[in-house]
Structure formats: C-alpha cells, structure tokens
Specification:
Elements (H helix, E strand, L loop, with lengths): L1 H7 L2 E4 L3 H27 L8 H18 L1 E7 L5 E8 L8 E5 L6 H5 L3 H4 L4 E5 L8 E2 L6 H14 L8 E6 L1 H12 L4 E7 L7 H10 L4 H5 L4 H11 L12 H12 L3 H13 L12 E7 L7 H10 L3 E6 L6 H4 L1 H13 L2
Parallel strand pairs: 1-10, 4-5, 4-7, 7-8, 8-9, 9-10
Antiparallel strand pairs: 2-3, 3-5, 3-6
Helix pairs in contact: 3-11, 6-7
Length: 351
Amino acid sequence: AHTLSLVHNHILCKRPTLREMASMKLVHLFRRYLSIALTLFQSLFSRFFDFPILVKLADSFLSLYFLAFCDLRPVTVDLDDGETTVHFWISGHRRISRPNLVMLHGYGGNSKWQFVHQVSDLSKSFNLFIPDLVFFGQSYSKNSDRSVEIQARSIVGGLKKLGCVQGGRTSVYSISYGGFVACKMAEMWPEMVEKLVIVSSGVGFTQQQKTAEMRKHGGDCSKILVPQTPMDLRMLVKISMNTGLTFVDWVPDFILSQFIAVMYEKNRQELIELAKNLLEREEESELPVISQKTLIVWGDKDKVFPLEHGYRLQRHLQSSRLEIIKGIGHAVNIEAATTLNNLITSFVLSV
C-alpha cells in the first residue's frame, strides 16, 4: 500500500498546447466580428427574437455533431422509482475492446454544451455514457430530494438499465458539480467504479470555505450558478475562465438572454434548490473515503475552487495524482480540452 502511494500520489504541471492557445485567439476574434453582425441583424429583425430560435438552433447543431461526428446517440431512461427520467448520450457502437467512460458535467448548460470540445477525441478511445444530471437538459424527477446522493442514484440507475456495468467496471470523469456526484458514486458503488477523474471540484469544502468563497463573488452563488440576466451569465463565465476576454464579452445581450431561457427557465427553481443544498449543507468533517485510483486535474488560476483545495484533495486520496495546468481557470474542459483529453485517456487506459 505504501508503494502504491508513492507511485500514484504525486503532482505534475502541464501547460496548454500552442494549438489550444492559437485556437482560442482566433475564436475570440471571430466572435467579436460575429457579435457586431448579430447586433446589426437583431436591430433589423428584432420582432423575430422573442422566441429563442438562435440558441435552439445551435443546440440542434450540437446534437447533429454528436450524432454524425462522434458516433453518439440520445437515449432517455425511465428509472424504476417511477419519478425520474435521465437523458444520456451514449456510444452508438460499443466495442468490447474499449473501456466504458461516464462523463458528468457541472453547472452551466447541459452535457452537450459542456463536453462539445471533448467528445470527438474521447469517443475514439472509450464507450461513452454522457448523462444530463437531474434537472439539467432533458433529465427530470418528481422527487423532492435535492441531494448529491439522489443524483448519484439516478445516474447509476440509468447506467444499469443501459448495460454499462455489464462486461466490466467503468471509469468516471467529472467536472465541478459533477465531481460531487462522481465521488458519491465511487463511495456507494465501489464494485462498479474502477477509476475516477476529478476536475476542478470542491469535494469536501468546509462550511467556512464555502462562506469565504461566496463572499468573494457577492454572497449569493446560486444566483451566479443559475443566472437570470446577461450580467449574471457574464459573471459566471468570467469567474470560470482565465482567458481574458471571453466569448460572452462579444455576444449581444439578446443571445445571452436566449441561452438563459433555453438552459435555465424550465427547471430554474429546482436548479436553485440543488445549488443551495450543495452550498448550505454542512459538509462531512472528513473527505470521502475513496479507494479507486484517482486523477485530479486543476487549473492554477481557478477562481471558483482555488488550487489549494486540489492539493488538499490529493493529499487525502492516497491512490491519486494531481495534474496542474498552467494559466487555466475553472473551465479546464473548455480552455484546455486537448490537454485534458490526453490526461484522461492515458490515465484510464493505463494498467
């Protein structure tokens, strides 16, 4: 056991690739000119923008991308509790030679919007199972429980119905809020979860730490996590990324309002309750006991869950290693997707 700790419990630093940095600069330039064009377009056709057609169209294009270029298909699973429906994107052609990988998103849209930069590469190495967490995207429940445990039970229930646990164990990759769910899955179903990848997640945050972080961002983090206005959404992106000017700086307010309407309005109250349950509940005095090999990934400029928490989590999990990506904020899955994909693939496929 001591040898295992020495092998797995270490810290490495990575930098985003030159391709990622150049790509982000081009994207920002393109979005700036696109913003100007869209604003002019709206001024000419403003009466047509009461309905969020642009964001719905973009969401449909993402679905087409998942289907046509990533060999993924949508599946909706009704759980045995008779109250919960979980929506998944899963590999269309599962291969025995490939391990299963579950991908758990955080706050900020549904699974498509959060994993769009990753699914193409990861689908070449894994059988993917990508759920919308309950009350996100197309997943819903009549259950009044807003705990992380009910999220974990819902995801595992859906995975069992999809046959994910047949023919071997599975690994779970999670970001931010999804990390809480992944750790609960690893605790409650150790026979199912083989390896964990935890990215930028505040698992084990004490009440004192939560209070300190909330004060930094104005006191009401649920308002930022579940934005109501374009200003709220800009704040969410600003604290999540470390690339200076982000795409929301160039996107007109009317498009951000459409995004909020599509992503948050249907289950707004439930999403707020999920956030408050996470932020206000007294965290366990000890971090979760997880025996699985774990890869922890953190951006050194994370303003949501500061890097020192990544160190704390790594010290606690004996069979773990911490990868620090230089110059990257909370949204590692967006700012350094290629680097993150390489880390996930090498870790999960390693013996």
